[in-house]
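Troubleshooting: if your tokenizer reports a length mismatch, compare your output against this known-good record of 372 residues.
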Amino acid sequence: MHGGNLRRAQELYGLDSFIDLSANINPFGPPSGVWVSLQKGMEDIVNYPDPESLALRRTLSRHLGQPMETIMVGNGAGELIFTVMQALKPQKVVIPIPTFSEYERAARAVGSEIQYVPLGPQGWATFSRRDEAKNNPDYERDNDQMWRELLKGCDLLFLCSPHNPTGSVLEQETFELILKITKEIGCNILFDESFFDFLPNESRESARGYMADNEHLIVLYSLTKFYSLPGLRLGTVFAHPSLLKSFEQYRDPWSVNVLAQHAGITALEDADYPDDVREKLQESKCYFYGEFAKCNFENLRLWPTSVNFALIEVLNQPPEKLIKHLGCLGILVRDCTSFEGLSGYFIRVAIKDIYVMGRLIEGLKQFFINGG
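Known-good structure output:
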């Protein structure tokens, strides 16, 4: 269901430490000030955390440009997905696949009927039709009709961009069309942009910018992935105050502990950290893509992305042997066979530092040299 299970990997491969490419976490660690804030925060663990996370919400409001009354924080994006679903209890949800499995689990937990929209390994590029639009005068009408059919009877639509696991980005034109249709039919949108901060500067346009005119839009944001805080669990949901009021009735008031609140504030206040991380990851990604191309693997296909992970298609054989080979070398990758709607054999790899990506390249080369 999820990457990053180091305990299970230790039991499986008999090793004490791993290069973990199975979870899409920033490899450079949290901002340096977070360690200091955690030490100071230890004094507060004898008290209950602020159930409203007021100081953290103020910081989020200031740095992300959202009104305080539209912000709710939780114990990671996963908890917030379940909270939203418990509050809304939609009869029918639409989920583009492949995608994060927690959407479906949360929907089934409240008895929702589920309809899939297949994207395939190309992700949102499936609905990128700019060239077609130039040659087809009826494109806009046909596209509108297609989305109306897909969303017929829908109470809640899950959108994920940058998309997991393909790393693709939903085009602005398509998103605006979806917003228009869902507004007309009374369908809510839960838009997950947990990997938003990994996007290059020119590509970062948050769905939060559409909230003022679309009260049915709910935007999910994660601080754990980009700020490298997965063990603390910290996520945010942005929504109209009337929606947040209903969400609060289903939320554990103590779910965000004092250390997570301290760390989140400090991480957001480090102005230099985001660009530094993006620059390092871009260098690593360019190195990895370049070395992968040089190897000319006949049995592997790399699907490049805009963010900190990528799909690798394993051609002509299931991925189990390759995954085991890499695991025995202390390299963990994400087996994508559990992703609904992803035909073929795929693994997902996170982008880490250049040394680590070099280790992955060597592990892949060794597998095929040995006749894998």
